[in-house]
Design goal:
This protein is mainly α and 180 residues long. It is built from 6 helices and no strands.
Length: 180
């Protein structure tokens, strides 16, 4: 196992730690662990390219680690009312639809290549920012950051999540139509 793949695996391992700290109400610790997990995400891709250590395992493990981290974070933050529950439903539903689409394409033996699109990268950035600021709101006084900003960020995140989901659905339909 190379270093970039180890960092992706570490991100997955940090997810239960985040949940445990959330259950304990240790929001500062959750924020620190989430930031560390986010740094592993930035580092694994950069190191894989820089060290020429891009692997098939890494191309599977990195997005899986991202999905596990963000999905778990959104579900847990919604349960603890730190973000709107409707946002967690939108984020999880998009990821579920993408996975369902991949399964359908695979079952139909449709050749496809999934490349992250720009709007998807913006979506991921907004999702990370939403989790970060929701946790930051619980660790600092309300004078620094207002819950209203979380609501605005939630609507922005939801919008991009829906748009990127629709784009992936359209791409999936095009893959199917191309082979029909």
């Amino acid at each position: 196992m190379n270093l970039p793949n180890f960092l992706s695996l570490l991100r997955i391992i940090l997810v239960p730690v985040i949940v445990i700290f959330l259950i304990q109400g240790s929001y500062a610790k959750v924020l620190i662990v989430f930031v560390v997990a986010g740094l592993t995400d930035a580092l694994d891709g950069a190191l894989a390219r820089l060290l020429n250590k891009q692997t098939k395992l890494g191309s599977f493990l990195d997005p899986l680690a991202d999905k596990i981290l963000l999905s778990t974070s959104f579900i847990a933050l919604a349960i603890f009312s730190l973000i709107p529950s409707w946002l967690a439903v939108i984020v999880i539903s998009r990821d579920f639809l993408i996975l369902l689409g991949i399964m359908i394409l695979s079952m139909m033996s449709v050749t496809y290549e999934i490349k992250p699109i720009f709007v998807s990268k913006v979506t991921t950035t907004l999702q990370i920012a939403t989790v970060f600021f929701a946790l930051l709101l619980k660790t600092v006084t309300y004078d620094i950051i207002s819950y209203n900003w979380i609501i605005v960020l939630s609507w922005l995140t939801a919008s991009f999540t829906i748009i990127s989901g629709l784009i992936y659905i359209i791409k999936g339909i095009k893959f199917i139509n191309r082979t029909a």
